[in-house]
Amino acid sequence: MIGSGILTEHHLTPVGWAAGNPPADRVETWTRRVFEDLRYGREEVHWHCEWASPDVMRDDRDALRVKHDHFMWESVRFRRLIVSIGAPL
Known about the structure:
Radius of gyration: 14 Å
Shape: elongated
Oligomer: single chain
Strand content: over 45%
Structural class: mainly beta
Mean pLDDT: 84
Strand order of the largest sheet: 2-1-3-4-5
Number of helices: 1
Low-confidence stretches: none
Largest sheet: 5 strands, mixed
Order of helices and strands: EEEEHE
Helix content: 10-25%
Number of strands: 5
């Protein structure tokens, strides 16, 4: 495949998503890999949960993720985009 990959780290907090250094109030950390397939003019976005706070119950983390899920699905409106979201820890 001809293309390029971009890897970024995002942190879920009570007020939404933050990029960069982990904030003190993060509840999960996810990596987002974007692969741009130049041959077919499409993108693939893959999310993988790397860390979950042991101090926050899974149900509470699930609720925050649902509340702020627009970020993970931000690009679905583009026709030639594939999005996959892995299971949280």
